[in-house]
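Amino acid chain
________________
===
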Amino acid sequence: MSIKSKYSLSILICLLSYFSFQGQEKSQKLPITEVLGTISTLHQVSFNYESNFLTDIKVYPPADNLDLSAKISLLEKQTNFVFDQVSAAIITISNPIKVCGYIIDASAQQPLLGATITGTSAYAVSDENGYFELVLKSSKELLTIRYIGFKTIERQVKFFNSGQCDPINMLEQQELINAVLIEGYLVKGIDKNKDWSTSIDYSKFTLLPGLIESDVLQTVQALPSILSVDETVSNINIRGGTNDQNLMLWDGIKMYQTGHFFGLISSFNPHMTQVATVINNGTDVALTDGVSGTINMQTEQKIDSKFGGIFGLNFLNAELFSNIPIGKKSSLQVASRKSLDELVRTPTYDVYFDRVTQDTEAQENVAEVTSSNQEFNFYDTSLRWLYNPTDKDFLRLNFILISNELSFNETVAEDSILRIRQSNVAQNSMAVGFDYKRQWNDRLSSTLNIYNSDYKLQAQNADVLAMQLFLQKNSVSETNIKFENVYSQDLWQFKLGYSFIETEVINLNDIDLPRYVRRDEEIVREHGAFTQAWYTNANRDFSVRAGVRANYITKFEKLILEPRLSVRKAIGDHLELEVLGEFKHQNTSQIVNFQNDFLGIEKRRWQLTDNDSIPIIESKQASMGLIYKNDGWLLDVHAYYKTVDGITTQSQSFTTKYEFEKEKGNYDAYGFELLFRKKLNKISSWLSYSYLNNAYTFATLKEIEFPNNFDITHSITLGSTYSNKDWDISAGVNYRTGKPTSIPVSENEVMNDVINFDRANNNRIQDYLRLDASAIYKFRISDSFNSEIGASVWNISNRENTINNYFKINEDDRVDQFSRFSLGLTTNAVVRIYF
């Protein structure tokens, strides 16, 4: 190597050594206090921190040419301290702040999975236990906690307890106004709400007399002025109205079939239905139809992050329910029930079957014909999919399938040859619904509801003597689209929306010999627009809700305006005053053409209005109520007046006089309801009384005015329930006056080959009396399994209660009386396993 090359290499080594030494000097850590002093001098700022807080802490000094924010950022990364510039010249230094907690549903006291907790510098999502934790920079940061369907919470970090993970209760949006007015209206789980409705929460529900299942449509009959004159869930009468005048909703879907066993038990799975709300006046403008009342059944609205299920078995059916989480934002719920007839026929099943087939061809036939091989089964399946794509969006998909089928053989012997033909009747429903809710912010939300509901009743009556087959069919298909917006501001809530309903009804009568076919198909389309304002004062002791619904029926070019009004005023601490009023209408009704239609099992068929011989049914109702509550005592008194126009004789279940008339008219009903309830420790006892005066007006009948078929003048219920963590025990008595009926004129029963009835509904069947009891025992099998067993007795005294009378002319031209009776003594038992 040349001397020049050696010289150049020496210079290069020296330069590298110098820069290396300079880099080592700059990369050496210095006390942070020294570094802060340099920054203070260069940028004219001061640092505030506790004494000894920075002792023995060293950092790499940032380059002098960096700006202040870059230097602070480098120091934060090295120390994990929080540098908070509280003003242009002051920067505080502190440890990061850890915040944790559990997000809880305030009503159900259950953890909420997927709640979002957002701060200025951090973000978290609650887990399956509702737990979250955040590391924040400042105690002044504002945390925002959101969960779809719940009121947003905003809280500064300084208001969290340091080092403690406390529960944070969130209120549902609807509870902000629809808060409970009276908890435990009858028993635990039945509440009176501030929106003038009564709700039954089956997750909290204890027990009512004679029931061991949370049967939705049986439990609502415990409320004043709600009963069934024939002891079925498919014929519920609210303040003297017929069943077709009730709007039955399952998760926003109108249902045209409500019962299994052709009306003896509800067709809605009790484990899928969480809340049933009953409205008999002052209805929200978003709802239409149901001139007598609304029963709104709702399933769980929140995603459950835990897998669980229920299996149950009673003397009528087996049942299964399961909740299946799908990730953190979705869950699937499946429920099903199936009758036991194909496996075993229990005594309870036989009692129900005999009640359904009483005085029908399935039970009794003409002398030459024998009915045999009676088979009956039912099932229902429901499915729900819940999905929260974000904390502001909520999707729900619902599906329900209901089926009832009864069949029997008719046998006749001719010339030693047996001829056998089968008759059957089937009643089925299938519905699907889609709901989407967008919570734009704490004040504004939008909801879209779409559903299709299909119902079909079909019977095949085989006349083995005449070699004739008679097919009857009644079907309903309804499609609904509804969009509504709700805006809340301070003490006000505003609602604005639109709905479209298309209803198609088909009726078919088909006889093969002689050939006869009649098929009637009707379609009605209706547009509805609605608006409503709801004011509640700051003290929450006064509220008024007023709105109007405009309905336009395109087929008849008819506009119907329906104002609605509800007012509530608290008077002191113990009194509440209510005033309610509403106009409503409906386009469908149920009629009976002949008592032996559909084998006499389910005689009613749905029909649409033609705005002529079958009018649009319109109602007006007003009521006033006073509620007193104090120290476990409750007194609830309501008086009401209701007029319903556009009814037909065929829709009123006449079985005696005017059974075959086809006239239109109206009825007026007025009455009052009285409820006493006392809570004492674990016992809740109640006495309810209802008075009703209900009369028809049919201008074209011989008798223009006469008592309504559903005029139950007096109705009394007395009951008591005891409940603790292990036992629910309940007993009660139901009494009511008999329903009106017409009887033949004594000594002149037949005229011109027809029954000569006396004045319409001038008599009554015998009074109704029933004593019931039930009990459920709850216990734990293991850490993962709970169980309960229960038993009930319906009609303990085995009283033969008449529910209807019929009259027929016999071969001697005399009149025979026939009666249908309610259930006699009926026992049931259940075992359930929760997992």
About this structure: The mean pLDDT is 90.
